[in-house]
Amino acid sequence: MTKVVIVSDRIETALIGPTGPEHRKLANKVMEEALKQARLRFEDLSYIVATGYGRINVPFADRQITEITCHAKGLYSLLPTVKTIIDIGGQDSKGIRIKDGKVINFVMNDKCAAGTGRFLEVIADSLGVPLNDLGKLSLEASRATPISSTCTVFAEHEVTNQLANGESVANLVAGVHESIATRVYSLVRKLQIEKDIAVTGGGAKNIGLVKALEGKFGSPVLIPPEPLITGALGAALLGKEKWEKARLDGYTPTRSKEGLQEAKLFT
Amino acid sequence: MTLVIGIDVGSGYSKAVVCEDGTVRSHAVMPSGGNYKDTAKAVSEMALQKRNLSQRDIRYTVATGYGAGMVDFADETMTDISCHAAGIHRIFPAVRTLIDVGAQFSRAIRVNDEGKVTLFIMNEKCAGGSGKFLQIIARILKIGIEEISELSRGSTKPVEFTTGCAVFAESEAVSRIAEGALPADILAGIHNAMASKIVTLVTRVGLEEKYAVTGGGAKDAGLVKAIGTELASDVLVADEPQITAAFGAALIASERISR
Predict the structure, then answer these.
(1) ipTM of the complex as predicted
(2) Hey, what CATH topology would domain B94-237 get?
């Protein structure tokens, strides 16, 4: 997903739109939507920061900052007591340790789909359950079916077989949440986990997965009101800081010369 | 006439080899499906019928592979690792490192000069270096798995995949196709991604020539070539690489009755 957050002294607008399979063509479209929603023109924006997996594909951004830094910044502005962030996105999962809004350490898995949102997508697809319904459905489970395969491909088979053997969809979904929580826990425990713990990313919208994570981490977790936008919010706040500091120091920060357009092929 | 049979019930395919005094008389291969017990029976019948034989002509049966335990008519079951080693040793006695690319798993097996296994490493946690990866890509390209090798030969600019994960590679392939990448370049890129996963396994058992590739993956000449490039060495492939373990099982069966 592509997220746009526009800030002034407050959050002017926040919008979530599709990234699409080529993750370079739609950033401008989502931006246009966000401007429309905020009743602003592109020229009204003083500074633009892009972050995330496709941050180099935003030609109209003035600066790129890694999502780790942006997540920490955004989350700190919303939930200042948090010291450990668990981010479960569609392409990766991460653990970030923060102190006063700054990153002190992080771990990331983007090598293997297990433990990421993709795992959920694949299983939801083969069970024929909409992604957004997984959380609620899993709360009806009488047990979490153990899933022995780590690999998404093998787990998908395992789940299909279990389904054919009469296991309930709710139990299987609960098992899948358990499997992801286990993977994420074994990743994040490499950091020195400190409370409070927050969960962000698409995974935070899944109540079943959040409960499973709470079980693994042995602690309740905090969830920001809109868990998908923390990275974009952090990017906006960092952009604002950068621009304000430049003005204080008496200069105008360099801006991108590209207008609001889609990224070109870079091959 | 002392006939024996080796049956390898794999996670993807089942294979049967009928041997007479260490020589292959007949063989059969069929998809394993969901019922290993029936498939084992069917594949051995199929191999026997090719030579107008029946189960009664068989002196000894050795079963191996993922579903070996389901072969209730076997006299003995053996691990597929030992059967692979026994089979490849008879076909290529000089092989010291065997790479088996199966439907679900890939394995690297070290074999000594007597055809005995000295070390093996198996990748059962990840579909990255397995035949499953090929199936996934064949599906999105809407081609048969047996067409992959031929198609990949036309590649001039293999796509560089940033991931060894079959799930992530699938979406990466979809993106590259949308950008206009040719099927040949996608396939050659997948071969390279798989080869690098497979060769990390081989490195862990220790690199020793000569190398051979077995299993269904060995039927994909493009993959074998990519493995060879990654190893910087020649790689041997038997005429029927998929039946290596079943052949090994039959050789072990022959040994049992000659004692």
Answers:
(1) 0.79
(2) Nucleotidyltransferase; domain 5 (3.30.420)
